[in-house]
Specification:
Radius of gyration: 31 Å
Largest sheet: none
Order of helices and strands: HHHHHHHHHHHH
Distance between the termini: 105 Å
Helix content: over 70%
Number of domains: 3
Strand content: under 5%
Structural class: mainly alpha
Length: about 350
């Protein structure tokens, strides 16, 4: 029995369509940044490789966790520096042609000359800032990460399963990112979990996290008591975390005391000078006798000093695992009320 060729071709075409629909589509449209990277690499390929080796971008990018080729990052740096230099040149040329002021020409020349330098410097500093942020994120979450891993392994899960669950926890974003990197090395590159853990901390910026992971891997390789190591290490991490919080609390208390002393002394001093200056005939023209200076001191300088103090205290505070946004909401909602009270006092 012969099957017509047309029926066979139809069946093969339908089977191919079914297979193509079942397979994932690997082709994705290029984004604007992808096209820009391609253009930068085609323009500065050889020079970018030399720049990458000169500035050791491979080490800094690995510490920062930036998953970009060092040569491609160097090409991106050179491209944006070239674009900023061209923009600075155009600004200088337009100013020289259409501005008659010598002061404006000199000012534009100085500011425009700094644009490419600042662009290049910002790309050079960015990996260090990213590495510092990565280190701080994992340092704040490390005690909770250790406790979670200890509980999972004590419950009978493997380290791979524990990392898979850790990667889905949104309350630990830094630890979740680190777990995803390790799982990528295991599932995509075929590494065993212990080797993937060791490779993930070779260039990690946080030494406490690196010591924790390397201590775990060495305990596993020696055949030691992993549960005992994890529990003892977790206890030590929580004790160190509590000590850090106590030190931060002492610093915040000192900053609050200094703030209160400054507010009281400056307020009393200025109001005393204002009262004395208004009562003495020879001091009527002094800065302390002006009502405008009193208003600026009360409604501009003092709130600015309070804002600077709040920012300093916020910078000293440790990052919370679960953010507390109620004080920020209260501050934002109280700003219109404060402005209304100030205007009512001024125009009463």
């Amino acid at each position: 029995m012969q099957i017509p060729g047309g029926c066979i071709s139809v069946r093969l075409r339908r089977r191919r369509e079914v297979v193509e629909e079942a397979l994932p589509r690997l082709e994705e449209p290029l984004t604007f940044m992808d096209k820009l990277d391609i253009f930068a690499y085609s323009l500065f390929g050889g020079l970018a490789s030399s720049v990458s080796r000169s500035f050791e971008f491979d080490k800094y990018l690995a510490r920062a966790g930036i998953e970009v080729s060092p040569t491609l990052y160097s090409a991106r740096v050179l491209l944006f520096t070239l674009i900023s230099a061209y923009a600075a040149y155009m600004a200088i040329a337009i100013t020289i042609l259409y501005s008659g002021s010598i002061v404006a020409k000199i000012l534009v020349l100085i500011l425009a000359s700094m644009i490419p330098v600042m662009t290049f410097a910002s790309f050079m500093i960015y990996p260090s800032l990213k590495a510092s942020s990565r280190s701080k994120d994992i340092e704040h979450e490390l005690p909770f990460l250790a406790a979670y891993i200890s509980t999972m392994i004590r419950g009978g899960l493997s380290i791979g399963e524990a990392l898979d669950r850790l990667s889905r926890i949104k309350d630990l974003p830094g630890a979740s990112r680190e777990a995803k990197r390790i799982l990528r090395d295991i599932k995509v590159f075929g590494k065993d979990p212990i080797s993937a853990l060791e490779d993930s901390v070779k260039e990690h910026p946080n030494k406490y996290y690196r010591d924790f992971i390397l201590g775990y891997t060495s305990t596993v390789r020696r055949g030691g008591d992993v549960i005992h190591y994890l529990y003892s290490k977790t206890e030590g991490l929580f004790e160190a975390h509590a000590a850090t919080i106590r030190r931060i609390a002492d610093r915040i208390a000192m900053a609050a005391e200094i703030y209160v002393i400054l507010i009281v002394l400056l307020g009393l001093g200025f109001y005393i000078f204002f009262a004395v200056s208004t009562m003495m005939p020879g001091q009527v023209g002094s800065p302390f006798s002006s009502v405008v200076s009193l208003i600026l001191f009360a409604y501009l300088f003092m709130p600015f000093l309070s804002l600077v103090t709040l920012l300093l205290v916020d910078a000293m505070m440790p990052r919370m695992i679960i953010p507390i946004n109620e004080p920020n909401k209260t501050l934002i909602l109280s700003i219109p009320l404060g402005v209304g009270v100030a205007l009512a006092v001024l125009y009463a």
